[in-house]
Amino acid sequence: MSFSLGIVGLPNVGKSTLFNALLKNTQAEASNYPFCTIDPNVGIVDVPDERLNKLAAIDSPKKIIPTAIEFCDIAGLVKGAHKGEGLGNAFLSHIAEVKAILHVVRLFDDGNVTHVDGSIDPVRDAETIETELLLRDLSVAESSLSKATKQARSGDKEWIQKRELLTKITENLEKNVPLRTVTFEEEESELLNDYTFLTLKPILYVLNVSEKQLASGVDFPLKPFIPISAKVEADLASFTDEEATEYLKEYNLTESGLVRLIKKSYELLDLITFLTSGPEESRAWTVKRGAKAPEAAGVIHSDFEKNFIRAEVISFDDYVALGGEKGAKEAGVMRVEGKDYTVRDGDVMHFLAG
């Protein structure tokens, strides 16, 4: 399963700069002109997890392997994108491929960096992008509703349900209500899987701020948001760990903006981590919140899911407190769980398959 986030926003707000910082390279072109990114740049980024080092301190593995998520740097959208303005149709289709959206909004003011609308207005800019996503979804909903209405005349139950769902969706979009804020029943959510609506995707606003704004703090009417200073992140890249810790204290921070962003992105996708550890490797694995034990086993190998027998589970805190698997077993805190077990964040797991 792919866990991907699309970095979107107007041209020249800092999307490619952010992407490069996440990957600690210059894979994505960052230039002072619109549409310097056309095809999406894709990069895999490790998810920081302090728990891995604690497991490794106990098991002395040959390798430590963090879990990862995927970031896609999608070209800048402009007003009229849903009509194809600025290569908009292609860019909107790229957003359809990701699971969640990181919407980069420019708050910093720099006369040397042009703004596509000629002035800095973060709320206006955010609403421009949201409107384009809404209008694209409305177009999809209206055409899908037309088809569902025709098909429902046959009396087919599923098409009647789709017609009702698409009517509800269209009515909300016409009122400028993004679908992520609409409540859907379980049956409706299953039917939604047949469509790709952009405003249904979870969103995090990434505020590209100046050093001064980062130090003083910023507020933003659209939630959730996270402020990041490209200048501060660039400085941190050249510091030792000790220097970085001291530097971050100046901004009342304990972690870099990139670390905070990666962790927030992980939360945005509603993901959790389970762990495996032993002499070969200490490793983090990703599943959706609510995943059952066989699904987690399948992340390691598809055969483990098909032939799942049981899972041996130790909470991370118990594993560390008791010095690993042996101590946890002796203390009687290792649990044996079956197919209906819901995996918890931080579970240290061992799977048995037939």
Verbal overview:
It is a single chain. The chain has 354 residues and is of the alpha/beta class. Helix content is 40%, strand content 19%. The protein contains 14 helices and 12 strands. The chain has a 6-stranded mixed beta sheet, with helices on both faces. The protein has a 3-stranded mixed beta sheet with strand order 3-9-8, sandwiched between helices. A 3-stranded antiparallel beta sheet has the order 11-10-12. A hairpin with a 3-residue loop joins strand 8 and strand 9. Helix 4 packs antiparallel against helix 5. The protein is flat and about 60 Å long. It starts with a strand and ends with a strand. About 5% of the residues have low confidence.
Q: How do the strands and helices of this protein lay out in sequence?
A:
Elements: E1 4-8, H1 15-23, E2 41-46, H2 50-59, E3 63-65, E4 68-73, H3 88-96, E5 100-106, H4 122-152, H5 157-174, H6 186-192, E6 203-208, H7 211-216, E7 225-228, H8 230-236, H9 241-249, H10 257-268, E8 271-277, E9 281-288, H11 293-300, H12 302-306, E10 308-314, H13 316-321, H14 325-330, E11 335-337, E12 348-353
Parallel strand pairs: 1-4, 1-5, 3-9, 5-6, 6-7
Antiparallel strand pairs: 2-4, 8-9, 10-11, 10-12
Succession of helices and strands: EHEHEEHEHHHEHEHHHEEHHEHHEE
Helix content percent band: 40-55%
**How are strands sequenced across the largest beta sheet?**
2-4-1-5-6-7
Give the helix/strand class. Answer: alpha/beta
**Strand portion, in percent?**
15-25%
Distance between the termini: 24 Å
Task: Give the uncertain stretches in residue-range form.
Answer: 25-38, 84-88
Strand tally is: 12
- The mean pLDDT is 88
The rough form would be described as flat
Q: How many whole angstroms does the radius of gyration measure?
A: 23 Å
The count of helical stretches stands at 14
Sheet bearing the most strands, described? Answer: 6 strands, mixed
